[in-house]
Design a protein that fits this description.
Blueprint lengths: L1 E5 L8 E5 L9 E11 L1 H13 L16 E8 L11 E4 L12 E5 L3 E3 L6 H5 L2 H13 L7 E5 L4 H12 L3 E6 L4 H6 L4 E4 L12 E6 L13 E9 L4 H13 L4 E4 L6 H12 L7 E6 L3 H9 L6 E5 L6
Parallel strand pairs: 8-9, 8-11, 9-10, 11-12, 12-13, 14-15
Antiparallel strand pairs: 1-2, 3-4, 3-6, 3-15, 4-5, 5-7
Helix pairs in contact: 3-4
């Protein structure tokens, strides 16, 4: 089968399509014929650099296949799999390093997939799992509910676009932070207020948010202290060392306000909750761009640029929803 991997040594090694063996489903797995996958920062911050080191191990080293998110059709299943059948259209992702989803076929733990939302095509479904679950679980950690006043930093990105919509679905009052170019989009997603960070130093505000959800991982409880009321919660996606170190420091030094991190946990129950929000018309993935399988490296370049709005999708096969 064809799969996306690096073939050269070095951290800047581009992605190419290689021929590799088709995986087989284990007892708790399903084998999915992948229709679409999407690019997440984790893919090029962690998976791609790791892959680019493999050639140094010699010709016997197995290639690292890219990709976490997938949407496709189940073509085989293990004997212990329940609730998912051959022929089902599914979506999901696995965090055991990676799903290896950027391939014609992918093996994935059946507990990490759910039936594809009925109102989404495969490209839209592939854009949803990692970003949507991160947003859902981050808001849940902060105990967001009706009337909660939430600030979402990075509201136009992959996680942010989901976070705005899910917070509104939970009944929250939402303020989004984004650049000038994306203010209209964030308003359209349902934000009650939008702060243009190019026009205002939002961290200088004195406000009374119950929750500040930083999906960029560039802020900390210390930098957002004035935004939160006493007893408020700062949540970070923890995507870089600054965020991780800041969270540890804040938990030790800060008592009046809380600092938490969300580490996404793929599971069928949360994927089904996302599908329910989507099929009820409360949440919709935002797609920045779509690339053919042969152009997978271009998709990664687009994601790395930091200019994508919503998710970058790779179309592995031409099956329609």
């Amino acid at each position: 089968m064809k799969a996306a991997s690096t073939v050269e040594f070095g951290l800047s090694s581009p992605l190419e399509l290689i021929e590799t063996s088709r995986p087989e489903a284990g007892a708790r797995d399903v084998l999915v014929k992948v229709v679409a996958t999407s690019v997440n920062p984790k893919d090029w911050k962690l998976n791609q650099p790791f892959s680019s080191l493999i050639p140094s191990l010699g010709p016997w080293a197995k290639p690292v296949i890219m990709g976490d998110d997938l949407a496709g059709v189940v073509v085989a299943k293990g004997q212990e799999v329940k609730g998912i059948d051959i022929g089902d259209a599914v979506y999901g992702m696995d965090m055991r390093l990676r799903t290896a989803a950027c391939a014609e076929f992918a093996r994935i733990d059946a507990r990490c997939v759910a039936l594809k939302p009925k109102t989404l095509n495969f490209a839209e479904a592939a854009a949803t799992p990692l970003a949507g679950l991160t947003a859902l679980q981050g808001l849940r950690i902060a105990q967001v509910g009706p009337g909660t006043k939430v600030l979402i930093i990075g509201a136009s990105g992959g996680v942010g676009t989901f976070a705005v919509q899910i917070a509104k679905a939970m009944g929250a009052m939402v303020t989004g932070v984004c650049s000038t170019a994306n203010v209209a989009l964030v308003k359209k997603l349902g934000a009650d207020e939008v702060i243009d960070y190019r026009q205002e130093a939002f961290t200088d505000r004195q406000d009374d948010f119950d929750v500040v959800f930083d999906v960029t991982s560039y802020q900390s409880l210390a930098s957002c202290w004035g935004l939160l009321k006493d007893g408020g919660v700062f949540v970070s996606t923890g995507g870089n060392a600054t965020a991780i170190i800041g969270a540890m420091r804040d938990r030790i030094l800060c008592q009046q306000k809380k600092s938490k991190s969300v580490w996404v946990s793929p599971n069928r129950q949360d994927l089904e909750q996302l599908a329910a929000y989507i099929d009820q018309g409360l949440v919709r993935p935002v797609i920045d761009s779509q690339y053919a399988f042969e152009k997978v490296n271009d998709a990664y370049v687009r994601s790395k640029s930091g200019r994508s709005v919503g998710k970058v999708v790779v179309l592995v096969s031409d099956r329609e929803a």
